[in-house]
Amino acid sequence: MDPVLLLLVVIVAILGFTYTNGFHDAANSIATVVGTRVLTPHQAVLLGAVTNFLGALSGVAVAKTIGAGLVDTNFVTIETILCAMLAGITWDVLTWYFGLPSSSTHALVGGLLGAALASAHNQWSVIKWTTGLYPKVVLPMFTSPLIGFAGGMMVMGLIYVIIRRMRPRMVDRVFGKLQLLSASYMGWAHGFNDGQKEMGLIALACYVATTQSNLEHLPSWLAFLRSPKFVVQPWAQWACGVAMATGTYIGGWRIIQTLGRKMVRLRPVQGFAAETTGATILAVTGAMGISVSTTHVITTAIMGVGCAKRFSALNWTLAERIVWAWIFTVPASGAMGYGLISLARLLGWVK
Questions:
Q1: Where are the domains of the chain?
Q2: I want to staple 204 with a disulfide (CB 3.0 to 4.6 A). Which of 67, 181, 192, 193 is the partner?
Q3: Backbone dihedral angles phi then psi of residue 103, each to the nearest 5 degrees
Q4: Neighbouring C-beta atoms of residue 94, cutoff 10 Å
């Protein structure tokens, strides 16, 4: 395939993944505000779309981690990135269909790792274990849910102390308004962390295409694709922001139902605590370039908030299903990415 056309296909695939991230993870930023009935679903997805878009334009630290910090780019080709995207999209759609809030972040990482390993002909050194994968993906994969759970319990416990003499109706009224702020904060933080990941892959795709293919004769209207070094360009930020906002507006109603209404019964005060906890974790890790799963953080924050009063408030059976979906995400999407590259090699499309 013509390298320019292949690059355009890859960029479309990345934006497609960003779109699925929007509708798949829309629940992460708006489930609680819907579950507490502070906003209607239509109002919530509109709020989520705007705040996710703004968050996606707010930084590039995570983009650099995903695009250049996980695998050796010398072994990455345009086909590697395409297969990684297809693997991530497939896993996202499957878990969305079954209403499970799995991690788009880890689907993306798993697909990239599997496709890169296959592209490198099983040379495990292609993966940057000590400088990228372990400290910025694997360690946060285990610590962020624990921090989310503990943080949710602590914030909710502190709020219980503050509101202990307030009437229930007054509590709902006050925190119903405050939850508009916390939901906006959560939407922004989701875009700030998750929105950057796809930008990093677009930057990687343009860099790989420029260095490995002949892009010297690009027409003037496509000159923005040429990138002789790894850099996240403004057009990539805007494209990913728009794609994520559009996906968010379409809405992930299955997952909203799971998080906002089935897992634990929420009041506005609890929604405020969960969103504030989750958004703060995402904001801090995003500024540090650490790739954290929004799904893991907000889901465990909701669990922690629900358990702050009594542990029986949590639907433990559903929580167990969600955890198993998390465990299988990286190996499943990694196997898909590896398999797609292997199939392409079998068909003679890649070396």
A1: 3-346
A2: 67
A3: -95, 120
A4: 16
